[in-house]
Amino acid sequence: MQAYGGKSQYVKWAMQEGVGLSSTNDSFFFDPSIRTYFKNYIKTVLTRKNSITGIEYRNDPTNFGWELINEPRCMSDPSGDTLQVSFFTCALAP
């Protein structure tokens, strides 16, 4: 069950936008359009202000770290997407 969409949801959104992809979830790791969608999501979460404290999540000292994806199940990452997304996240939330 894909309760929250995960990789397959990003692939579905890209296909709906007319991006020519295979239907495999591994497109999540290789397609630049999907990478942009995911980075926008990460930026939205990191720059969101806590409604109680008024502190952006990226600056909140109670946040220990960020899990970018749970159990990615990608056999390889020749595009370097995982590292690129990690650098993007670190730049926003050092």
Automatic annotation (TrEMBL):
A molecular function (GO) term: mannan endo-1,4-beta-mannosidase activity
Keyword field: Glycosidase, Hydrolase
Catalytic activity from the UniProt record: Random hydrolysis of (1->4)-beta-D-mannosidic linkages in mannans, galactomannans and glucomannans
Record domain Glycoside hydrolase family: where: 5-82
Leading EC class: hydrolase
Pfam families in UniProt: GH5_mannosidase
Coiled-coil stretches: none
EC assignment: 3.2.1.78
Family to which this protein belongs: Belongs to the glycosyl hydrolase 5 (cellulase A) family.
PANTHER family, per database record: MANNAN ENDO-1,4-BETA-MANNOSIDASE, PTHR31451
Protein name: mannan endo-1,4-beta-mannosidase
Phylogenetic placement of the source organism: Eukaryota, Viridiplantae, Streptophyta, Embryophyta, Tracheophyta
Gene: LOC111241136
